[in-house]
Structure formats: structure tokens, C-alpha cells
Amino acid sequence: MAAVRRGCWPWGSLLGLLGLVSAAAAAWDLTSLRCNFGAFCECDFRPDFQGLECDLAQHLVGQHLARALVVKALKAFVQDPAPTKPLVLSLHGWTGTGKSYVSSLLAHYLFRGGLRSPHVHHFSPVIHFPHPGHLERYKKDLKSWVQGNLTACSRSLFLFDEMDELAPGLIEVLRPFLGPSWVVYGTNYRKAIFIFISNTGGEQINQVVLEAWRSRREREEIRLQELEPVISQAVLDNPNHGFWRSGIMEEHLLDALVPFLPLQRHHVQHCVLNELAQVGLEPRDEVVQAVLDSTTFFPEDEQLFSSNGCKTVASRISFFL
Predict the structure, then answer these.
(1) Over the stretch 22-47, which tens digit does the pLDDT of each residue have?
(2) Which of 58, 80, 141, 313 has the fewest beta carbons closer than 10 A?
(3) Which DSSP symbol is given to 247?
(4) What is the distance between the alpha carbons of residues 161 and 51, in angstroms, rounded to a whole number?
(5) Residues in a beta bridge with 158
(6) Which N-terminal residues, if any, form the signal peptide (predicted)?
(7) Is 98 within 8 Å of 309 (Cβ atoms)?
(8) Which helix (H) or strand (E) holds 121?
(9) What is the pTM of this model?
């Protein structure tokens, strides 16, 4: 996943900062004690919406829909003292558009330990479920893992990457955990967050954005209602997607389908400038132009969208410095 960006923190005086650190340490001690009591433990769950919104605004380029949708859904869920079901989001879009970056931000701004928190669980098909012939064992292990970790802490985040590569049938074991039931297998699970990430629907999203551009509509005029149906159909029609015949889509267990739009030339330029700033370098026109010139854009006639989004920007900058 992409590294979390810095630079959004409103620092106060040194004494004030030391006071905050001392208070946080005391709060951590109390929380650690409460963690021994199981399902109602909040553990290192420390949501920082101000930091999240600032980081998204500065570094998530070209994604007005994803930014607004994620923040709105997350705030409503976290601020509800007694949610009736977990928060379940499915992120969709072309490669390099920010899906993994957003998931890393959620871990960073929701949990003290970020992606290293013991209550943030990241699953990758290649790493965790590499052999299709072991599907039944994977299903049993995944169910036990989710159930056990929710028993230890109800405030847990589960990230499932590359849903396009996940063996169909595996994710169906999660269906009982995603719905509006009070208790599953004796586990309190309603405060959990599940994030599913895939490229499925990316081509359909690209087509909607392309048609809007051809019609001279502003990108920000594109609405979620235009994209939800095409994304849903793309998932339902894809036998290689992890949701295939799992019942998750059919039973409407997803709280939101989050679309990530393809990135245009000026978005890639923004990413280059951001990356240069992150490594402490001043903007250099020749580097920016070299990265843009080495980037492939499509469709062939319009040359409108970056084929890799901002995914390879960091490595390309290193090459041209």
C-alpha cells in the first residue's frame, strides 16, 4: 500500500504537545486494561477525522466522489454508539487511482498503530490464499480469524485487497458477519469495518468519465448514481471476483460502492509535485515533464487517462532525478 502522507497536523506549543503525549499515554494504559475484557474493547481505536480529511484533500487527487463518500460513511458509522451492522465498503476503479492509498489512510487515522495495529488485518490473495485447491481450509481459517479477532476487539478493520484475484466462494464465509444481526457465533461484531478493494468496474467507470468529457461536462458533475449500477453489474458479471455468488451483493450487505475515477494528465502532474515535496525537493519542471512524457495515456485518440494512474510516479521520479 502507498505510504501515508504527512503535513496536515496543526502543531501547538511544545508544552501543549508534551501534555497531549502525557495524556495519551495515560489513556493508553487505561485502554490496555480495558482490552482484557474482550468484545467491548476499543483497544487502539483513535479516529482522527480532521487529519483524515486534510490528508485526503491534499493528496487524493481527482476523486471527489470517493473522498466525500468515504468520509461521510465513516463519520456516520463511528459516531453511532450502537451501529446495527458493521461498515462495509467496496472500493472500485482503475489501477493507480488511490484505492490502496485510501485504505492505508483509514488504518492510519483510525488506529494508533496504523497498518501495524494488531486490530488492522490486511489480506492479499497472493500471500494469504495462494492455492485454489486449499479453498475449504482457507474458508475455515478466515472464519476463525475474523471471529477470534472480533472477540478480542470489536473495533477491528479488515482489508481485502485484489478481490479480482480472490478464489470465488471464499468470501461467502463472511456473509454472516456483514449483516444487521446482533450476534454471530457468540461474537459482538457490529463495530467492525470491512474494506474490499478491486479493479472490477474500472473500465465501466472510465467509460462514464470519458462520455462526460466528450459531452463537455465537468468531472465534478459526475454523480454516484451514474456509477453505482454499472459497477454493480460488472461485479455480478465477473466470475473471477470474490463476491461471485457469495450473496453479499444480492443481499445488499455493502454500505457503499466507492468509485475511483481515472486520472488525467493534470492529476499525474499533481502527484509528481506531491512526491517531490515528500522527498524534500523543490518543483523541477524538467522532472515533471519527463514523468508526464514517460506516462502512457488512453484512449488512443484522446490520450486522456493515465494507464497506471499515479502508481509508478515515485519510481519514475527517481529515474529522472
Answers:
(1) 443 433 344 444 444 433 446 899 99
(2) 80
(3) S
(4) 24
(5) 121, 194
(6) 1-26
(7) yes
(8) strand 120-123
(9) 0.87
